[in-house]
Design brief:
Layout lengths: L6 H11 L6 E6 L3 E6 L7 H5 L6 E5 L2 E5 L4 H9 L20 H13 L3 H19 L8 H15 L1 H12 L4 H10 L3 H4 L7 E4 L2 E4 L7 H21 L2 H45 L1 H17 L4 H12 L4 H27 L2 H17 L3 H8 L3 H20 L3 E2 L13 E2 L1 H22 L12 H9 L2 E2 L11 E2 L8 E4 L4 E4 L7 H4 L6 E6 L5 E3 L4 E5 L6 E6 L4 E5 L12 E3 L6 E2 L4 E5 L1 H6 L6 E5 L6 E4 L5 E2 L4 E7 L2
Antiparallel strand pairs: 1-2, 2-4, 3-4, 5-6, 7-8, 9-10, 11-24, 12-13, 12-23, 13-21, 14-20, 15-16, 15-19, 16-17, 17-21, 18-20, 22-24
Length: about 650
């Protein structure tokens, strides 16, 4: 869009030209366009829309008014529903979002929060395993400086996890992620921790401030991100845009750091204490139920960073000779071990390299070191079905532990290494077998639920190129009337076919937006009868991964952005017959699977499977050349993006 036109002004102009909120029944966005369902098409000024700076084209297609804007469309749509009279349409924000259930929203939020953190969590966990092995076998002194450096390397991501989680959660909610991280970091700052010892109370802002340790605690980070998302939208709605850059982050930090310290943080700790006290009571009064409930709920305690409340009680029990709490808690460890192994097997069967790599690392972490975070954040929380399988398996393993009244006589976090420390050992072994076997079997039978993914390109991920793009004719070898990036790129990018099938010109695509090359130059592929997946046509970062799973946006390592859109109007399937196997922010290699789909079911539902592959930010000095013809196999050269010469 034009650099002289703000998103808010563009949203206001579009809203007026479609007839205002009284003429609009619903509005949502896909990866590049606003989609309006209007009551009276005669009130829509298509010519005015198409001539508006920042709008590529406006057309009537699929029973909708489609206004093509580009990959920053989500920001324009947010500004639109923030206008007076438009707020009632805010629930249909993304592709198919109007029909999403609350649980869908929760898992989408958790997936977008934790998925980008998986590489760091996995790497740090394996470092912890290495340190554990080196110290246990006597090859490294636990109190040596070398061990201290390696321990810091392995523990830092977990200690500062609230900061990272606040960053990704804030980004998911459309707020400035650095502001979210700064708010979370304030509670770990030495100036804050120096206010008093754990559990003490001081006065701040004339109110009682209860001091707790917030390292590794997720609950306050998620609460502050939710509050930041709401406050950010409120401030941007009422503050003049010229003042927002300075005053929005200032007000957010001033308001939410005290709110987190005074309210969100203590609520999380008190919630954890209530759970801990309840389970402690259950342990003493209904021990058999305790063995079933503790393993099933332990995953939530770990995810909120409050499991240490129970572990501290368990250590007191150990000092007295034995711990029932630790004996029961191993049901959780066994189930997490089984989930990780089960996902390794499932990923191998599905030839899903990304999932397999995550699952293998998670298996090593939990099996050898007893570190469950890679499994928790990488394999369980992003997939609701896996969460259900883990809880069922943990409860079943705990049931076996309860039948033998298993208790711990020592402490080791690793499931296998801890077996000699559990009594009776037979009960622990049988519980381990159940904890391993049950999730492996259930995962092969039920599979795993597709993970939540970002619904549109975040402002930070969309990049300045799309925001500063302008309408133009370009110099593309393939006819093009869409967005032109004013930057210069000199690299030659070879784009390979993301799917096997017959190459067809964009002009023959049964969609006026793609057929007119309004989104960008490229080609389309009519998938072959056996095609069932989409792979990455280049190496790069996933910048758009709508929850509907029908499209993926990639930014190649040189900055070239591509959109792969499976089928025409398939957004209306609301995710049915599609499985997205990557998430926003993931770095992928060329040939890595992105989407799996059921071609027969999509065709039976009446949708064309023609798949456009387009460059969405073609530079003014670039052109698309060497376009393949006829039938191409997956991974074969499709076209080349070259500097004009």
């Amino acid at each position: 869009m034009s650099t002289t036109t703000t998103d808010a002004a563009l949203a206001r102009r579009i809203g007026d030209l479609v007839g205002g909120p009284a003429n609009v029944a619903s509005v949502h966005n896909c990866t590049t366009r606003l989609r309006f369902v209007v009551r009276d098409d005669g009130k829509v000024d298509y010519e005015g829309l198409s001539q508006t700076p920042g709008v590529i084209q406006a057309v009537k297609a699929g029973g909708q008014v489609q206004v093509v804007i580009g990959t920053h469309v989500d920001r324009v749509r947010d500004d639109l529903v923030g206008l007076p009279g438009w707020s009632a349409m805010g629930d249909g924000a993304a592709e198919g979002a109007g029909k999403r259930r609350p649980l869908d929203v929760v898992f989408d939020f958790l997936g977008a929060t934790f998925q980008p953190l998986i590489p760091a969590i996995t790497g740090a966990a394996l470092v912890q395993v290495l340190v554990l092995l080196l110290t246990q076998f006597g090859w490294l002194a636990a109190d040596s400086p070398t061990a201290g450096v390696m321990t810091a390397a392995g523990n830092a991501i977990f200690y500062f996890l609230p900061v990272f989680a606040a960053f990704t959660a804030s980004r998911k909610l459309g707020a400035n992620p650095f502001v979210g991280a700064a708010i979370a970091a304030a509670l770990l700052h030495p100036a804050f921790t120096a206010l008093g010892a754990q559990g003490t109370q001081v006065q701040a802002f004339g109110l009682p401030l209860f001091l707790y340790s917030y390292a590794s605690s997720m609950f306050p980070a998620l609460m502050l991100a939710l509050a930041l998302g709401g406050l950010d939208r409120l401030l941007k709605r009422y503050l003049p845009r010229a003042l927002q850059q300075v005053f929005v982050p200032t007000i957010e930090i001033l308001v939410l750091v005290p709110a987190t310290a005074l309210v969100f943080g203590p609520i999380g700790v008190l919630f954890g204490n209530v759970i801990g006290d309840g389970l402690a009571w259950l342990s003493g009064n209904v021990p058999f139920a305790f063995y079933v409930i503790v393993p099933a709920l332990w995953i939530f305690l770990v995810s909120m960073g409050i499991h240490w409340a129970l572990i501290s009680i368990a250590l007191v029990e150990l000092a007295a000779g034995k711990s029932v709490i630790l004996g029961a808690a191993f049901g959780y460890q066994y189930a997490m071990f089984g989930v990780a192994l089960g996902m390794v097997i499932l990923a191998a069967r599905q030839r899903n390299k990304k999932l397999r790599d995550t699952a293998v690392a998670a298996t090593i972490s939990v099996g050898v070191g007893g570190i469950t975070e890679p499994t928790l954040y990488g394999l369980v929380l992003p997939y609701r079905r896996v969460l259900a399988i883990e809880m069922i398996s943990a409860a079943a393993s705990g049931l076996v532990l309860g039948l033998f009244s298993t208790f711990a006589i020592g402490f080791s976090p690793a499931p296998i290494l801890a077996l000699p420390l559990l009594s009776p050992t037979l009960g622990a072994v049988l519980a381990l077998v159940v904890g391993l076997a049950l999730p492996i079997i259930l995962l092969q039978v039920w599979g795993f639920q597709k993970k939540g993914a970002a619904e549109a390109v975040d402002a930070a991920d969309a990049g300045d190129a799309a925001a500063s793009a302008t309408r133009g004719t370009g110099s593309a070898g393939v006819g093009f009337r869409g967005l032109v990036d004013t930057g210069t790129r000199t690299a030659t990018v070879i784009v390979v076919a993301p799917i096997e099938g017959e190459v067809i010109p964009l002009a023959k695509v049964p969609d006026p937006i793609f057929a007119g090359s309004l989104i960008g130059p490229g080609v389309a592929i009519a998938p072959s009868a056996t095609a069932d997946r989409v792979v990455a046509p280049v190496s790069g970062v996933v910048v758009a991964a709508p929850v509907s799973g029908h499209a993926v946006g990639l930014r190649a390592d040189d900055g070239t952005e591509l959109l792969i859109h499976v089928g025409i109007d398939t957004v209306k399937l609301n995710g049915e017959h599609f499985t997205l196997v990557v998430g926003q922010g993931d770095h992928v290699e060329a040939g890595q699977p992105l989407i799996r789909f059921d071609a027969a079911a999509i065709a039976a539902a009446g949708y064309s499977l023609v798949t456009p592959v387009v460059v969405t930010n073609i530079a003014g000095d670039q052109r698309v050349v060497d376009v393949a013809e006829g039938v191409v196999s997956e991974g074969a050269a499709l076209f080349t993006v070259n500097p004009a010469g």
